[in-house]
Amino acid sequence: MSRTRTALALGLAAAGALSVASVTATAAPAPLAGSTTVTPAGHSFKATLSGKATLKAGSVTVTCTVSVSTGTVPAAPGNQNASGPVSSPISPPTYSSCTSSVWGVTPTVTTSGSWSVSMQDGSPITATMTVPTGGLVVQTSGLATCTVTAAPTAPANVAGTWANGAPPSLTFTNASVPVTVTGGFGCPTSATASVFNAVYKVTDTTDPAQQITVGP
């Protein structure tokens, strides 16, 4: 066999092996999510910011000390999922008493649209807050006039964790949120993502003697 034909044969064999490996890798099943149950079924809840929430885009950090959202645990059997998370709609979180890391710049945060939070039992219990398209907008005034829009082109999932307790807590630590920034001098217009940090304490408003709990 000539060198050319030999090289061609080896190349085809390598390509075939790569194709088989790719098919095998693709065919590997993803691990299944475990069951999740959120109780008490049908109870309303309120999430209140503990401490401060920060949203950093580029070199600018917006800090808010007041934030609240409300929601309802799905009624049975919707509060249970044998193979995945349980999702609850929530009101757009409100943010107030906000300041900017840039002197002379005042931020205002507005939220809108259909927000939700989903819980997946595990170790740790994971929580995902979904921000609708354009559902959070930060506008600044003063020495810099900027507009920061979160989830600018599609809904965004913000990863967090849930801890059962009295009261339970919902924590977001250095969670990435896609953004676009527009404005003039002093605006971080090159930023495409922001970092979100916040801890919320969650109370059962239907029966304050009970706790919202996530389990298998």
Report on the structure:
The chain has 216 residues and is mostly beta strands. Helices cover 12% and strands 52% of the residues. The protein contains 1 helix and 16 strands. The strands form 2 sheets. Strands 2, 3, 4, 6, 7, 8, 9, 10, 11, 12, 13, 14 and 15 form a 13-stranded antiparallel beta sheet that branches. A 3-stranded antiparallel beta sheet has the order 5-1-16, with no helix packed on it. The radius of gyration is 23 Å and the shape is elongated. The model is unreliable at 1-30 (pLDDT under 50).
**Helicity, in percent?**
10-25%
Order of helices and strands: HEEEEEEEEEEEEEEEE
Radius of gyration: 23 Å
Structural class: mainly beta
Q: What distance separates the N and C termini?
A: 64 Å
What does the overall shape look like? elongated
**What is the average per-residue confidence, as pLDDT, rounded to a whole number?**
88
Summarize the biggest pleated sheet: 13 strands, antiparallel
Number of helices: 1
Find the count of extended strands (DSSP E, 2+ residues).
16
> pLDDT under 50 segments (min length 5)?
1-30
